[in-house]
């Protein structure tokens, strides 16, 4: 039995009067690849953003290796360095080159020396196939390339788990392919990840667990074979039929 | 035409007799403007960082109180120094301080007094410009920095402010050029810069208009050169449009250049001309 990294229980989030998440329970164990699927506005991204505290949950608890992340003395920056995030809009630092993007966190947060940081950054940039572009600024490369750099930036921190917030939604089909290929190699390496995605084929073929969300609650979850092959809930069937009947 | 010729010869005569004084004045003006703009920028950036310290309702009461107090203090500073004429601020600081403190507090150096007034004044404007600059940066940049574990100050220092600085360069240029001209009012506390030289020379020679002509040309020259240098500096900050493509061995150098057309890297400037005309005094 693998150790669980994250335990989310009874998580809730409201924006003013708007209830976005209700009573969410789920856990992530080492090596898990969890896909979160669901319609836009169902709270998938908010759940992910709550997980690394870019949004502060209004209720519930998140345990990281058994420690409550809202407890006193818990270092949120250190936690975020361990649980990385990749965004839909890449969010590469526009003032830094590709290489510097992958080094700044290592230098300032992990306090690595320049040589180690540069070596690690180049290693991961090479992994995502962006090694030739180390001197480029983010504005000079394409969307797919940006996302690959963003993944390398997150990997350079050598995180325990990575959160992907719709990593391919802002990309054209060809770029989607190149980014998904990179993510698949990470899965093969055994990286723990949670992926919010609209790529159903990816969720079905790559993840070992699928979470279907609707209206701020987890409607159904299970192995991809069950969710895609034999969903129990009617909502899940309806949602998936819209995808596969196209 | 006769008048112009006469003016020309008067100007030439006046310049020949007093050029050292005029040049000295220009030097005072330029040095005061440069130093005060730089210090003003520092004040502005400091206020900008302090003003954007995040504070949630869930934070403890002491932090909320301190952050709130800080915001109020900065607000008061900005409103008072932006909302009163610099000429009166100079009078209050230079003559008012010794008057109210029975000579206990006073500036012995006119230069120091002028420096203080202009710096603090520039700082008040820059505080707002920097705030605008920070607001102009995509929130995604902050999230990206937070997501790799940076603290607020690290995020500001390494990610947000470098980009904000680039976006508010036109504003800093504005402030500098305004300072070049507005240091003229420091004659009220007896600071001898370019304009004070004019008053002295005109008073001595009774050649008021020729001296004013020299002043006009002098100020225009200073501002034109500044504009040119600022533009050049902005270009330099944008960096090269091309980049070196690394070869398969990333420790080795170029295998060629990739060229890109000038992009939209300076987006966000368009909506930042807020106080372009606000400082006309």
Q: For the largest beta sheet of chain A, what order do the strands appear in spatially?
A: 6-7-8-3-9-10
Distance between the termini of chain B: 34 Å
Strand content of chain A: 25-35%
From the spread of the alpha carbons, the general shape of chain A counts as globular
Total count of helical runs of at least 4 residues of chain B: 9
Could you give a short account of the major beta sheet of chain A? 6 strands, mixed
State which percent range the strand residues of chain B make up. Answer: under 5%
User: For this entry, what is the oligomeric state of its chains?
Assistant: heterodimer
Structural class, judged by helices and strands of chain B?
mainly alpha
Output the strand order for the largest sheet of chain B: 1-2
- List the secondary-structure elements of chain B in sequence, H or E: HHHHHHHHHEE
Figure out the total of helices of chain A: 9
Q: Largest interface, counted with CB-CB under 8 A? A: A-B, 42 and 34 residues
Helix-strand pattern of chain A, N to C?
A: EEEHEEHEHHHEHEHEEHH
SS-based class of chain A: alpha/beta
Could you explain the architecture of this structure?
Chain A is of the alpha/beta class and 246 residues long. Chain A is built from 9 helices and 10 strands. By secondary structure, chain B is mainly α. Chain B is built from 9 helices and 2 strands. Chain B has a two-stranded antiparallel sheet. Chains A and B meet through helix 2, helix 3, helix 4 and helix 5 of A and helix 5, helix 6 and strand 1 of B.
Please summarize what this structure is:
The complex is a heterodimer of chains A (246) and B (281). Chain A has 246 residues and is α/β, with parallel strands linked by helices.
SSE map:
The complex is a heterodimer of chains A (246) and B (281).
Chain A: E1 4-15, E2 18-29, E3 33-38, H1 44-51, E4 59-64, E5 67-68, H2 76-82, E6 83-86, H3 98-108, H4 114-127, H5 143-156, E7 161-165, H6 173-188, E8 192-196, H7 200-206, E9 209-214, E10 217-222, H8 224-229, H9 234-244
Parallel strand pairs in A: 3-8, 3-9, 6-7, 7-8
Antiparallel strand pairs in A: 1-2, 1-4, 4-5, 9-10
Helix pairs in contact in A: 3-4, 3-5, 4-5, 5-6
Chain B: H1 2-51, H2 61-83, H3 86-100, H4 110-135, H5 139-147, H6 152-167, H7 169-182, H8 194-205, H9 208-238, E1 243-244, E2 257-258
Antiparallel strand pairs in B: 1-2
Helix pairs in contact in B: 1-4, 1-7, 1-8, 1-9, 2-4, 3-4, 4-6, 4-7, 5-6, 7-9, 8-9
